[in-house]
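queue> pop job 88
queue> type: inverse folding (structure -> sequence)
queue> payload:
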């Protein structure tokens, strides 16, 4: 849903304020869902005696990533590094940086989603194979 929200924002660069507000609502709902599922994935990965430390490190990493991401986005907008005409409906030069930054965020969200899916699937496969190996060992004893 975050990618959908960013896509709606990217489409609505020249639209009315209420359209951008709807896109932001969709994006923030998607962010809330993804934050909850990532937190659950981290806590379920850790052993019971390390959940507190692991969640603390996870939260610290999230705070640092949010701060660094905001600083990088501000630097990209400030230096006008994103002024390539990639958006078909944007005519003014001032809007190109914002439109291209939103497109970059769409790509980041899609790549992150793909990596999360890939690694969570790999973890499930490893868990199944380790359970099968433990089951084989218990029958041999």
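queue> result:
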């Amino acid at each position: 849903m975050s990618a959908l929200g960013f896509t709606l924002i990217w489409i609505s660069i020249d639209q009315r304020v209420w359209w951008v507000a709807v896109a932001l609502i969709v994006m923030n709902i998607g962010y809330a869902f993804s934050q909850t599922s990532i937190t659950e994935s981290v806590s379920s990965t850790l052993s019971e005696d390390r959940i507190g430390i692991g969640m603390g490190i996870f939260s610290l990493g999230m705070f640092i990533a949010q701060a660094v991401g905001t600083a990088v986005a501000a630097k990209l907008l400030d230096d006008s590094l994103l002024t390539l005409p990639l958006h078909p409906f944007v005519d003014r030069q001032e809007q190109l940086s914002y439109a291209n930054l939103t497109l970059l965020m769409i790509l980041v969200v899609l790549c992150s989603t793909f990596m999360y899916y890939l690694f969570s699937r790999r973890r499930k496969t490893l868990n199944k194979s380790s359970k099968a190996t433990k089951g084989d060992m218990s029958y041999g004893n």
